[in-house]
Design goal:
five-stranded antiparallel sheet, mainly beta, 43% strand, globular, four-stranded antiparallel sheet
């Protein structure tokens, strides 16, 4: 995750010699995979640059980086939370409406579970009837 912060610092510096800040709430410790160990999440919503208000986020939201063991996965989102459903820890993310066939304000949420055997996030679109 350090490389993500360093890249953000460099991007800020490159934009009119801006000063980078990592704000409160940028780093989270939460159990993502249900092993009762706290994993790491880095939210670019907590990145700030003195010379560019929207350098790290846009209409689609901000990128969050989820680190489980030595694997990092990134997701553009407008907010996320964790839930317990049965035996699973479920990552719920508010994503851009275009992922649901709409436009930005169209409500759209993705639910993903961690597959510890394959070391990947799993999710699908429901087939509603």
């Amino acid at each position: 995750m350090l490389e993500k912060v360093e890249a953000a610092q460099q991007a800020c510096s490159n934009f009119e010699n801006g000063q980078f800040a990592l704000e409160l709430g940028a780093i989270h410790r939460v159990d993502l995979d249900g092993d009762n160990q706290r994993d790491w999440v880095l939210d670019e919503a907590g990145f700030a640059c003195s010379t560019a208000v929207s350098l790290y986020c846009g209409t689609g939201g901000c990128v969050s980086h989820f680190l489980i063991e030595d694997r990092m996965f990134s997701l553009l989102n407008q907010g996320w939370d964790m839930a317990n459903i049965g035996p699973f820890r479920v990552l719920l993310a508010d994503v851009h409406g275009s992922q649901c066939g709409g436009i930005n304000p169209t409500p759209c949420v993705v639910a993903s579970v961690w597959d510890s055997d394959e070391m990947v996030w799993r999710s699908t679109g429901a087939e509603w009837e």
